[in-house]
Amino acid sequence: MADTIRRTKRTGNFTTVRNEYLQDVNLSWKAKGLITYIMSLPPDWQLNLSDLKNRSKDGRDATAAGLRELITNTGSQALIQVAGGVNLETGRQLVEAGADVLVAGNAVFKAPDMSDMIHRLKSL
């Protein structure tokens, strides 16, 4: 499988997806649907789990699992990032669900000891 996803600009409301993704027996239907949806987004769209999970009835964990499957099976070097509502409790759950990068604003800036909070979040 190729390491790159190529997008071609077309006129009209449709998406072109390489058959190799759709015919890959190592990918679940969830992953195939996810890659097809991602390909339908504008080229400058920033892939973000927090936003992506809100675009389907699948929750955070199911969406993260689909992304993790795509990353693992395609050899991608992509990281899964989550922003919004990240604290020690949700951070642990997010890491367990497959997140690689946590963006924690309030948890850090409202902590009595910001340095300690950063250290604790990094250790999740």
Gist?
It contains seven helices and two strands; from the N terminus they run ααααβαβαα. The protein is mainly alpha-helical. It is elongated.
Structural overview:
- The chain is mostly helical and about 120 residues long.
- The chain contains seven helices and two strands, in the order ααααβαβαα.
- It has helices at about 20, 30-40, 50, 60-75, 90-95, 105-110, 115-120, and strands at about 80-85, 100-105.
- Helix 2 (about 30-40) crosses helix 4 (about 60-75).
- The radius of gyration is 17 Å and the shape is elongated.
- The protein starts with 18 loop residues before the first helix and ends with a helix.
End-to-end distance: 33 Å
Biggest sheet statistics: 2 strands, parallel
Low-confidence stretches: none
What's the pLDDT, averaged over the residues? 88
Layout of secondary structure:
Blueprint: H1 19-22, H2 29-40, H3 49-52, H4 60-74, E1 81-83, H5 88-97, E2 101-103, H6 106-109, H7 114-122
Parallel strand pairs: 1-2
Summarize this structure as a short list of keywords or feature phrases:
single chain; about 120 residues; mainly alpha; two-stranded parallel ribbon; 7 helices; 2 strands; about 45% helix; about 5% strand; elongated
